[in-house]
């Protein structure tokens, strides 16, 4: 039960990132890349403070792959939404995350029950029904490529985290190195610009739902099978849309209600214990 609650809390943190991103960009006057930059710096400072307070001296170092995949995810995610609709972007992102992590599980010899494939397929079908725009045009090619790269980046970041001996310290190192590289980008494009609302959303996303959420994710990952960790993340868009309804005044539709049942039912089926 404790593992379930920690995993659920992590999914809520991931979904809150989407809500805060939407708030900062659409209402806070920030460009997506500016939001990502401030989010990453805020997360790095929060994690540095936590490590200092805890006087953590564990022999854990940052991972080059972890830092690179974190940057690929954050930059690809932010830049893709310049040309992609939010729903299509989320669908591409989580579709690629599933492919990346299930492929890694197969390569590593993880036994995957047929029920997990079926449940994951049902859940992803629900996401498609929920997120694909009705009568919309095909997504922008470059935007789709950037979001697919973000999906691979997040999948790899998750896989690397399974071997973290000190989750908080590993997350802090990854954020620190990625934030330093973001400084070089800031030299070229300038410091982040936006309204106070945009700044607050970016800082909250970085310091709370990213820094603490990612550290918690690295903590629970060693206790989860790769395919279970992948499937659980299919709930994030549903939680994010529910957050938009609750906090951003977005409309509650019958489509959302029916698709959510399909997504959550598929995830429950995929996670059902097998003999």
Automatic annotation (TrEMBL):
> What keywords are annotated for this sequence in UniProt?
Membrane, Transmembrane, Transmembrane helix
Give start-end ranges for the coiled-coil region(s).
none
The family database entries (InterPro entries) matched by this protein are listed as: AA-Vitamin_Transporters (IPR050638), EamA_dom (IPR000620), EmrE-like (IPR037185)
Q: What is its main location?
A: membrane
Highest taxon in the source lineage? Bacteria
Record membrane topology: Multi-pass membrane protein
Q: Which residues form the EamA domain?
A: 5-131, 142-271
Under the heading Pfam families, the entry gives: EamA (PF00892)
Q: Where in the cell is it found?
A: Membrane
Span-the-membrane segments of this chain are 35-52, 64-82, 88-107, 114-135, 141-162, 174-191, 197-217, 224-248, 254-271
A GO CC term assigned to this protein in UniProt:
membrane
Q: What is this protein called?
A: Threonine/homoserine efflux transporter RhtA
Question: What is the species of this protein?
Answer: Litoreibacter ascidiaceicola
């Amino acid at each position: 039960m404790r593992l379930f609650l920690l995993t659920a809390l992590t999914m809520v943190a991931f979904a809150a990132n989407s809500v805060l991103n939407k708030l900062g960009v659409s209402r806070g006057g920030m460009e997506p890349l500016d939001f990502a930059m401030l989010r990453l710096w805020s997360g790095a400072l929060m994690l540095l403070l936590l490590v200092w307070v805890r006087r953590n001296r564990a022999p854990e170092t940052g991972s080059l792959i972890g830092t690179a995949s974190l940057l690929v995810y954050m930059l690809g995610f932010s830049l893709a939404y310049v040309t992609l609709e939010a729903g299509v972007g989320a669908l591409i992102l989580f579709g690629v995350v599933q492919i990346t992590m299930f492929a890694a599980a197969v390569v590593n010899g993880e036994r995957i029950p047929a029920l997990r494939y079926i449940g994951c397929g049902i859940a992803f079908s629900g996401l498609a029904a929920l997120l694909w725009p009705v009568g919309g045009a095909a997504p922008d090619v470059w935007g789709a490529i950037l979001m697919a790269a973000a999906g691979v980046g997040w999948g790899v970041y998750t896989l690397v985290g399974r071997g973290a001996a000190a989750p908080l310290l590993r997350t802090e190192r990854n954020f620190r190195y990625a934030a330093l590289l973001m400084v070089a980008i800031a030299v070229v494009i300038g410091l982040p610009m936006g309204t106070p609302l945009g700044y607050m959303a970016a800082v909250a996303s970085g310091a709370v739902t990213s820094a603490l959420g990612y550290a918690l994710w690295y903590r629970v990952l060693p206790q989860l099978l790769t395919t279970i960790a992948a499937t659980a993340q299919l709930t994030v868009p549903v939680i994010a849309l529910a957050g938009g309804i609750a906090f951003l005044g977005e409309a509650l539709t019958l489509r959302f209600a029916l698709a959510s049942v399909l997504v959550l039912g598929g995830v429950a089926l995929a996670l059902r214990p097998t003999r």
